[in-house]
Structure prediction request, 68 residues.
Amino acid sequence: MTQSMRVQLDRERCQGHGRCYVLAPAVFESDDDGYGLVVSADVPPELHEAARKGAGNCPEDAITIIES
Prediction:
């Protein structure tokens, strides 16, 4: 059975470093001011590793990964 994954980005904590969308552009993108946005909260299995990489490199710990 495939695990499901959801990604949440705390806009209050995001400082716009851009690591998430540089490392995982299929999961995260930039808004007009350079702050991160989640492309889709529900991450398909083939992008789970990319989501973890983007989240793990956020210096503000603004990204939460929820797996079930």
